[in-house]
Design a protein that fits this description.
This protein has helices spanning 2-7, 22-35, 72-95; strands at 38-41, 48-56, 62-71. Helix content is 40%, strand content 21%. β2 (48-56) and β3 form a beta hairpin. 14% of the residues are buried. It has three helices and three strands, in the order ααβββα. The protein is flat, with a radius of gyration of 18 Å. The longest helix has 24 residues, at 72-95. The chain is an alpha+beta fold. It has a three-stranded antiparallel beta sheet with strand order 1-2-3. The N and C termini lie far apart (45 Å).
């Protein structure tokens, strides 16, 4: 889905750190899927950085994203901690969309 959106979008550099090269973005998307989160550093606003992780539904599709942003000076010092918290909380939210176990496997009686 992300690639199809990118293919229809004109990418505009808004800071010196904005990435507009599609091959680089493809590598970043692959990395985000592998790690389970994506990070930006000064890409949309100088001095602002953040991390986001997907909230997935029962079929594995992305329903939403959970993100956390911070001033780059603080984010740089704790980016691993921020990523761990966001990924953990996104997984917790994802569990709300998963099918519930049917009475822990007990059969229904009529």
């Amino acid at each position: 889905v992300a690639r199809s959106i990118l293919n229809r979008t004109r990418l505009k550099k808004v800071t010196p750190n904005t990435i507009t090269d599609r091959a680089t973005i493809d590598r970043m998307l692959d990395s985000a899927r592998e790690k389970g989160f994506a990070e930006v550093k000064d890409a949309n606003l100088l001095g602002a950085s953040g991390v986001a992780a997907p909230v997935v539904g029962p079929r594995g599709g992305v329903l939403a994203a959970l993100s956390n942003g911070a001033p780059t000076s603080r984010y740089a010092k704790a980016h691993k901690k921020f990523a761990k918290i966001v990924v953990t909380k996104a997984r917790t939210l994802s569990r709300f969309f998963m099918p519930k176990a049917d009475n822990a496997g007990k059969a229904h009686s009529a």
